[in-house]
Amino acid sequence: MEPAAGPAEGGCGPAGGSSAGGRESGGQGDWAGGAGGNWMATHPTFTEMMSLDISDSAQIYAAFVVYLDLLEGRNWHEVKHVGVAELQLVCLHAREREQDSLQVMVPVPVHISLSHERIREIMKKASLPQDDPNTPLSVTLAIVESDSTVVYYKMTDGFVIPDPPDDTEDVDNKQWRKKRKKLFK
């Protein structure tokens, strides 16, 4: 009889041990989980991510958590990982619905600080080319906590006019019409 799969000593998550793939990662990146017999270490996508030229195993772990969230939790389509070696990031390209255009997700562990310059660099190098040259660059930061909570922040280069509300009650609202007139002047 085989032992049940699950978090073993040195397994995935914040509890000590070595980092993903058995690499040591001192400091706050220790939550990336080891190969202690858990399912994650043998998952084909995780092993592909580990083979990318990305040195931070915490970033790879965060990318895998976001990958699972998009694919299994949110039912997104065509979720693919892309290594951006010059940024030392694993980005994800995915479609929310089959007919939607690809979006770029940039997984980041919560303990990583991002400056304005770093965010701009990520947007320039990780964004997909736009069909319309007037469409601003866009990426979604996926900030991953050690308990696998993911918070998504959509970042665009410049201002983007929000879509009108879906609720017809708001469209008829006098205040909404005033705001809309100001926005489109």
Task: Describe the protein in words.
This protein has 185 residues and is α+β, with helices and mostly antiparallel strands. Helix content is 26%, strand content 19%. Strands 1-2-3-4-5 form a five-stranded mixed β-sheet. A hairpin with a 4-residue loop joins strand 1 and strand 2. Helix 1 runs antiparallel to helix 2.
Strand-helix topology:
Elements: H1 44-50, H2 57-73, E1 77-84, E2 89-95, E3 103-109, H3 116-126, E4 138-144, E5 150-156, H4 168-171, H5 174-183
Parallel strand pairs: 3-4
Antiparallel strand pairs: 1-2, 2-3, 4-5
Helix pairs in contact: 1-2
Please outline what is shown here.
The protein has 185 residues and is α+β, with helices and mostly antiparallel strands. The chain contains 5 helices and 5 strands.
Shape: globular
The span between the termini is 71 Å
Largest sheet entry: 5 strands, mixed
Taking strands numbered 1, 2, ... along the chain, how are they ordered across the largest sheet?
Answer: 1-2-3-4-5
- Total number of beta strands: 5
Radius of gyration: 20 Å
- Mean pLDDT, rounded to whole units? 77
Q: Helical element count?
A: 5
State the secondary-structure class.
alpha+beta
How would you spell out the order of helices and strands? HHEEEHEEHH
Give the DSSP E fraction (strand runs of 2 or more residues): 15-25%
**Into which percent range does the helicity of residues fall?**
25-40%
Q: Which regions are unreliable across 5 or more consecutive residues at pLDDT < 50?
A: 1-36
